[in-house]
Specification:
The chain is α+β, with helices and mostly antiparallel strands. The chain folds into two domains: about 10-55 and about 145-185, no CATH class; about 60-140, no CATH class. Helices cover about 30% and strands about 25% of the residues. It contains five helices and eight strands. The strands form two sheets. A five-stranded antiparallel beta sheet has the order 1-2-8-4-5, with no helix packed on it. It has a three-stranded antiparallel beta sheet with strand order 3-7-6, with no helix packed on it. Strand 4 and strand 5 form a beta hairpin. Helix 2 packs across helix 3 (about 155-165) and helix 3 (about 155-165) runs antiparallel to helix 5 (about 175-185). The longest helix is centred in the N-terminal third of the chain and has 15 residues, at about 30-45. The termini are close together. InterPro entries: Phage_CHP. This is Phage gp6-like head-tail connector protein. It comes from Rhizobium wuzhouense.
């Protein structure tokens, strides 16, 4: 299994600048650029392959490459909502798509997502030597009405606390307590490694 690749980034942030301003009781637009930057920093801290939660927050598309087919193929960045495609390259480099009737998206008791191929799926034997199999999938919470993020409130609150610790003097003084609260809010969404 190779490192996952972000194909299409999220189109919106899970928390808006106005949400943070409301929590901080800030009026005006003087801090808008700083708050936007800090929100993006918080999102980068939490999400993606290298984020502390290892998840996608707002829906985005990822690709996971493998050297060969297995009956069960892990998708490390979740929550996975849809398999877009499963493709493979043969030794000559020609790409083919696996029909979606041959696999299903599954989730185990630990919250890990994977593609499970049906028992009688006949795996191609003439595969390209490296990263021959690619699974493209959507992960993250979808957008709701009016393109508003449906990311859970706990994660949104953790992002706001992350920003607050960098802007608010009182929050900086209580950063140890806020760190613990932020961690408690977000940690239940951490994906367990495969």
């Amino acid at each position: 299994m190779h490192r996952p690749v972000l194909v299409t980034a999220a189109t919106v942030l899970p928390v808006l600048v106005d949400d943070v301003k409301l929590a901080l009781r800030v009026d005006g637009s003087d801090l808008d650029a700083d708050l936007d930057r800090l929100i993006r920093s918080a999102v980068a801290h939490y999400e993606g392959w290298s984020g502390v939660l290892g998840i996608s927050l707002v829906e985005q598309t990822w690709r996971q490459d493998f050297d060969r087919f297995e009956q069960r193929m892990p998708l490390p960045v979740g929550p996975v909502t849809e398999i877009v495609s499963v493709t493979y390259r043969n030794a000559a480099g020609s790409e083919s798509t696996v029909d979606d009737s041959n696999y299903a998206l599954k989730q185990d008791a630990g919250g890990r997502f994977f593609v499970r191929f049906i028992n009688d799926f006949s795996t191609p034997s003439d595969l390209y030597e490296e990263a021959a199999v690619s699974i493209e999938y959507k992960a993250g919470w979808p957008l709701g009405e009016d393109d508003v993020s449906t990311v859970p409130a706990d994660i949104k609150t953790a992002i706001i606390l992350f920003v607050q610790k960098h802007v608010d003097e009182a929050a900086r003084e209580n950063s140890a307590m806020l760190d613990r609260i932020e961690r408690d809010l977000a940690s239940k969404y951490r994906l367990h490694t495969v």
